[in-house]
Amino acid sequence: MSSAHRNEVGREQVLAHRVAVHGFDRSSPAPEVLVLGVQDTPYGSARSALAARGASADGLDLVWSFRGAPHLHRRADLPALAAALWPVDDADATARINTAVIKEGAKLGIEAFRGTAGAFREVVTAPMAKGEVSAAVSASVPESLTYWCDPCGAQHISGLLFQQAGLFGAIRVGTEGGRTVLAPLEQGFPVPVAATGTAELVRAYLRFLGPAAPAEVAKYLGVKQTVVKAVWPDDLAEVWAEGKKAWLPASELDAMLSAKSQDLVRLLPPGDPFLQARDRGLLVPDKNREKEVWRAIGGPGALLVGSEIAGIWRAKAAGRKLDITVTPFGPLSGGVRKALGCEADTVASTRGAAEARLHFA
After folding, report:
1. Which residues, given as ranges, of the chain have pLDDT below 50?
2. Count of alpha carbons within 13 Å of 246, Cβ hemisphere only?
3. How many helical (H) and strand (E) elements, i.e. helices and strands, does the chain have?
4. pTM score > 0.85 for this model?
5. Count of alpha carbons within 13 angstroms of residue 283, beta-carbon side
6. Rounded to the nearest 10 degrees, what angle do helices 110-123 and 90-97 cross at?
7. Looking at residue 2, what is its pLDDT?
8. Rounded CA separation 156/132 (Å)
9. 248: which of 104, 211, 290, 329 fits an S-S bond (Cβ 3.0–4.6 Å)?
10. Which value, to the nearest 10 degrees, does the dihedral of the CA atoms of residues 92, 93, 94, 96 take?
11. Which of 83, 104, 220, 100 is nearest to 160 (CA)?
12. How far apart are CA 131 and CA 145, in angstroms?
């Protein structure tokens, strides 16, 4: 395609479109981005992500979904989500769980997932501590899917398989007294027979975190590129974003080409869906700042101003009060600082604090 006819989109258009489709204007109590769920790492952060969009956790269940990470999802979406996340074939299943501790067991492929999902359903008939469930499931699956854990003095199922199979076992995740508790979903469904609807998940990523290429979608789903390419949707538009070829649903092309930054300020928690895009260099072009936003351990939240990540923030409880410290990447206008006071109150509310105290570093 010649440059005269190809669709060129700039970084500003891409980010402005993402802000619009994520529902940060708070126009809907059920933003459509919920099709991808909301990651809840650290525990409780998903409520802040929902509040940034004017939404609540009503009607949502916490499950291990994408990459085995805890996400809040709409209850009614879970059967279809399980089918879409089910491995497409044995090679896909093996690649998802292939680690040094269960090298042989990983070769079981889909059977490893089917057996673990079945064990979950047999073991978890009422709320149980995660450790108890792990011990019982470990005893129920083929030994090749377990390994000896010296610190515990016990044979454990691979954690990677355990958490990725949780949704297939119709398991809900919760906490009680500071410990993780697993329970059967109130509305169960059968173990998937085959992967169906995986292309819809690809399309959802491209809509909310696109435009993107198969490599980025594969990282998000925790699968090989070959899997994504095999289910790559047909109804996509090809664009060139910052000199790179990428795709998004054709139905979103006009909206992206005309996207304009909105006048808004939001405090996004770590793991927010907006921060889940795999083109981090596009969101935060400065490498040092990129490392600040996406720290591997104990990552901060991100300050969103318009459609730009304009800083980071952290919160610390002080009795019934919540101290929120914002570290901006540059000067903030008086209007932004004033809006941050309201956003800090919103974050405090989601954490059960009576008052927010805003500080600037």
Report:
1. 1-3
2. 28
3. 14, 16
4. yes
5. 26
6. 70
7. 41
8. 11
9. 211
10. 90
11. 100
12. 17
